[in-house]
Amino acid sequence: MKLFTYQRAKSVDDAIESGGTYLAGGTSLIDLMKLEVLNANRLTDLGRLDLRKIQADPKGIKLGALASNTEVANHPDIKQRWPGISQALLAGASPQLRNVATVSGNLLQRTRCAYYRDLATRCNKRVPGQGCDALEGWTRMHAVLGTSEKCIAAHPSDFCVALAALDAIVHVQGPKGERELPLTELHLLPEDHPEREFALNEGELITHVYVPAQPAALKSRYVKARDRQSYAFALASCMAGLEISQGVIRSARFAMGGVGTKPWRVPAAEQSLVGAAPSREVFKKAADLALAGAKPRGENAFKAELAKRCVVRALITSSEAA
Ligand code: SF4
Fold first, then answer.
1. Spatial contact of 297 and 139, defined as CB atoms under 8 Å apart
2. 87 C-alpha to center of ligand 1: Å?
3. How far is the C-alpha of 272 from the C-alpha of 5, rounded, in Å?
4. Pocket test for ligand 1, best of 32, 35, 109, 113 (most atoms within 8 A of CB)
């Protein structure tokens, strides 16, 4: 680990003026600094800022950037009105990590691509232009959607998949003021520059995430396929929420994890469900549409089929929710 300076921010403005790398829960950043994958010269600790509140009203819920993953997962409004968000959070990491990991840290966590974390290998995300050893290497955990010839790393978050499906909005503050952007636009596709991961400008700090209330969220469900029952990243996952009345799907939301280079949502696949009666056949067609663009590489060909099954399972589970 390289030497760095440390300071505790007294306010959001103080943090933004510091010019340092923001430190929240530290569950990802500190690991990467120990490995010297990320080398921050200056850390600005956000831990004392008043960004921890979770506030619900009839129109939605505001999740403070520093609320822990545990606090969000166990919040009564989240469990009742956005249950898929709670399920997605509880499917990630371990209880100890969830107690410390924050909302904003979860949104900004880095890929778990093994090559990214191994300084002995080539990685365009770690060292721009260096090359990517994953392309001809061990690809079992890598993405099949949104990949490029420069990077095929899968996005790691479960929480972001749920937020993407439910139209969450990310609020940020930076040197040029405040702005908001949809969660679906926060993570960038790798394209020719995998080192650019987030649609954030220099110095911008996430202050909170807003999740609107909507009928499809009430029956939302998260399904995750992984190599072991807990403390494992998704091979494939799906968060789905359906609004059904009089035997017809009125609105549909779903997004996939483990298969994309970012949380993956296909509006045409969601739209294909609207107006139909819920059935396994209808769900399968939507899953086929959602995975139509999949480009497997080497050992990860199984992921497209696994993701389809996660989509169908999540849609069935949502449709059958009491
Ligand atoms: Fe790096 Fe992306 Fe290649 Fe992994 S897949 S080694 S993160 S460039």
1. yes
2. 29
3. 53
4. 113
- pTM (whole model) above 0.90: yes
Please check the confidence at residue 90 and state whether its pLDDT lies above 90: yes
pLDDT at 95: 96
Q: Please, are residues 253 and 220 in contact by the beta-carbon 8 Å criterion?
A: yes
Test site for ligand 1: of 111, 118, 122, 125, most ligand atoms within 8 A of the Cβ: 125
Provide, rounded to the nearest whole percent, the portion of the chain with pLDDT above 90. Answer: 99
Beta carbon of 225 within 6 Å of any ligand 1 atom: no
The residue to mutate among 116, 138, 149, 299, having the most atoms of ligand 1 within 8 angstroms of its beta carbon, is 116
Q: What is the per-residue pLDDT for 223?
A: 98
Helices (H), 188-242: 215-218
User: CA 82 to CA 311: how far, in whole Å?
Assistant: 18
User: pLDDT tens digits, residue range 278-298?
Assistant: 999 999 999 999 999 999 999
Confidence class of residue 322 from pLDDT cuts 50, 70 and 90?
low
CA of 201 to the centre of ligand 1 (A): 23
β-pair partners for 43: 6, 21
> Is 194 a pocket residue for ligand 1 (Cβ < 6 Å)?
yes
